[in-house]
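Box 3.1 A note on notation
Throughout this textbook, protein chains are presented in two layers. The first layer is the amino acid sequence; the second is a token string describing backbone geometry. Keep the layers aligned when reading.
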Amino acid sequence: MSAHHEPKWKHDGVRVIPGDTLDPNTAQTPGMDRKAAINHARVGAQKIWAGTVAIQPDAKTGAHHHGALESVIYVVRGKARMRWGERLEFMAEANAGDFIFIPPYVPHQEINGSPDEPLECVLVRSDNEAVVVNLDIEPVEKPERVRWIDPIHKS
């Protein structure tokens, strides 16, 4: 290898994206601060998108889905309340350390479940495209609380 030749993986291998360099140039919702860490534009990602969202106390998204994408939310701090279904009739809460999985096309709404603490999450989607389909849904007044049962590790 000559002195002026870069090793093959030096700049096309592992990337570390410092937390203070996340890109706020993403779709924003009032009361929320989304930032991209991993996407095609920044690192050449082909199959995933990852970033963060900080949600102010009592803030929430409108009803929406992410098309054919799968989404994972990891709760870093606070209480996440999720509603989902044709009329957002189902609800579950997640705390720091919990993961949330959202299958393709599931109508849902993210809510900060705390009146005075911010909610901080890491988001990962199964494509680098930011697919968001907003829905005009009249939500039910009292959603049914759903507890997830692990099909593999039944107690």
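The radius of gyration is 18 Å. The chain has one helix and eleven strands.
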